[in-house]
Amino acid sequence: MRKRxxxxxxRNNLRLHDNASLYRALKNADEVISVYxxxxxxxxxxxxxxxxxxxxxxxxxIESLLDLQRRLQIAGGQLWVFEGKADEIIPELAxxxxxxxxxxxxxxxxxxxxxxxxxxxxxxxxxxxxECCWQSTLFHLEDLPFPLSNLPKVFTDFRKETENHVRVRxxxxxxxxxxxxxxxxxxELPLIALKGQEPQGNNFYAGGESNGLKRxxxxxxxxxxxxxxxxxxxxxxxxxxxxKFSPWLALGCLSPRRIFYEIKNYEEGRVKNESxxxxxxxxxxxxxxxxxxxxxxxxxxxxxxxxxxxxxxxEDLNLFKLWARGHTGVPFIDANMRELNTTGFMSNRGRQNxxxxxxxxxxxxxxxxxxxxxxxxxxxxxxxxxxNWNYIAGTGNDPRKDxxxxxxxxxxxxxxxxxxxxxxxxxxxxxxxGKIHEPWKMCSRELSGMGVVLGENYPHAGIVIQ
Length: 466
Ligand SMILES: Cc1cc2nc3c(=O)[nH]c(=O)nc-3n(C[C@H](O)[C@H](O)[C@H](O)COP(=O)(O)OP(=O)(O)OC[C@H]3O[C@@H](n4cnc5c(N)ncnc54)[C@H](O)[C@@H]3O)c2cc1C
Prior knowledge:
Layout: E1 5-10, H1 20-27, E2 31-38, H2 55-74, E3 79-83, H3 86-96, E4 101-105, H4 110-125, E5 129-133, H5 155-162, H6 209-222, H7 229-232, H8 246-250, H9 256-269, H10 274-296, H11 317-325, H12 331-343, H13 348-361, H14 366-376, H15 382-393, H16 407-414, H17 419-424, H18 426-429, H19 446-449
Parallel strand pairs: 1-2, 1-4, 2-3, 4-5
Helix pairs in contact: 3-4, 9-10, 10-15, 12-13, 13-15, 14-15
Bound molecules: flavin-adenine dinucleotide (FAD).
């Protein structure tokens, strides 16, 4: 009897566990061809002259694909990686290998949606079925207690209407077998397109489902860090003040539902407290921005934002570059930007401050900041990044008008002893004469030399030495 063969197209769901589209593919076929497409746009340059996908994310993606390949092989499968356009490559493959259907994860980005539409149209011509599964959030889109058009404008209302009313669907089991067509062979993953200059700096974040699951195990069970998450989450230095799940979540190496049910197990087996609740609370923020993205589409990415607010910004590229490189002269900002440039990561507290500083103090076009983050962040996720930038720029879902982060008081509050600033700006420690005090007050002359007036909050005090 002829075997039923389908294609599973991996997108931002680079895992075997809790993978609805892979599960559906396996359920409806005897053989599955797994593919991943490296879209050439990943390597394009943006308006601020930074590649869309910078070195940290590229490296993480390569590691994730290699891990997926390994895991598929253990299950008897293979991963084929191609470079190009999915809507052209997948129909060709489907015809050549006689696949009767294509399965994938539903994405949100307007560019990805346009690929989906074109792909669906091409496959339809050949009577090949196309199925996109919603699976990137805790709550399933179809389980929301309101139509997407009525998504609450602020997060708190969304949370209240969902958290105790919507059930997180069960995770899909990890398949033991992913049968690959007999006679076809695997290939070396052609990851050349993604290769580039190796990022310098630490190697803490290694991509892939295996490492994501290890981090989950470590953060909950091995270290018990979860039980103090609420107290530590505003930290700045080190790996353990927050979960660091974000890079694995962004590429789908970890499923949010898997994290949710692991937290539930932890609550039963170890402790249930404000911290365990708060981790779920943060995952709800992630969900919220995904639904905001789904609702507003391309509007999320324009200067006017989802509120369609008109405001004039500066487009001073030199000043922007000082910000991006971490040379503004304001240590709390510079330290955060240098951490980002060295590791691809920045704490949530840091992100809020550097974003606010760019928009509210330097008054520079906030979309440049978001584009820079897209290039540099190892955990770049279109919904979370652009949703948060909208929020901080005052064009998004912030209920408070004109929220302002006072960098000096933020630095004082979260880096009172200056440990963080000294870590990323070692030149400060090298100043002869001794210890630095009140590091949050420091501001070198570099920025004032650019003729920028920062106002009263940033006196150009020079470097203060005790
Ligand atoms: C300007 C700006 C840009 C951002 N860009 C991104 C991005 O591209 N990708 C990204 O994953 N997060 C982004 N965030 C959100 C947040 O900073 C990171 O998710 C968080 O710092 C990741 O570290 P963690 O995994 O240790 O988080 P934890 O504190 O351990 O939180 C657990 C998880 O909850 C989710 N989460 C926490 N805070 C937020 C938030 N504010 N918005 C959405 N989800 C949240 C993340 O998935 C995170 O992994 C951005 C925030 C700001 C202010």
